[in-house]
User: What shape does this take?
Amino acid sequence: MIISERFLSLLGKHDPDDLDRQEGTIIGTWPDLTLALMNDAWTKFANENGGDVDAWCLGSCILHAVPKILLSFYREHFEMVLREDRPWEHTYECSSPDEQRLFHMMVFPLSAGQGLLMIHSLQKTSRLRGATSTSTVDEYEYTDGLFHQCVHCRRVRRADDINVWDWLPELVRLPRPNTSHGLCKPCYAFYYCDGRRTVPSIISTVDPIDVQDDMT
Ligand SMILES: [Zn+2]
Assistant: This one.
């Protein structure tokens, strides 16, 4: 575990040895959302998923890892946990090239708003079904040189039809450096709109889901 010595005193009932034995990734932050704790599973997950572990150290702000489109959502909820001194939970998708993966995140307040503890655990995996695009990767590159990938399902937006997002495992395995991350309409509707009740086994990019116009 990597931890700031000052942060240890905030953990209270959360035993640091227990946190380090968990399979789920766990981080702790100060109220300004800079890193104060990373458990061993976090380092392992980052290494296995192409994360730049060396770029993340104590004092790094976790919001730098959050796509712009989700910044206000996460910032508002973290501030709520600190302000109201009560936990918050959230389920989100972060799929690999072969599997759809759903993660559960629990965020606990520490010592009456002096810090946050965030525990991520893998909730569900299922083999990805549905069509893999037969188009070439080049056909997804926009005229400004960017690829647009959904931060959750990791589908890629077609350059010739901005309303369609296709599954290209190749771009999940080896993301292009010139990739812009956003949310496809189904993920936005499913993960961030109120009233969701069921978990579909796969999210179709062509299902007619009502979303805000500004998500195009
Ligand atoms: Zn998506």
User: Anything to note?
Assistant: Residues 130-194 form one domain. The helical segments are 5-8, 16-21, 40-48, 71-84, 169-173, 185-192. Residues 196-216 have pLDDT under 50 and may be disordered.
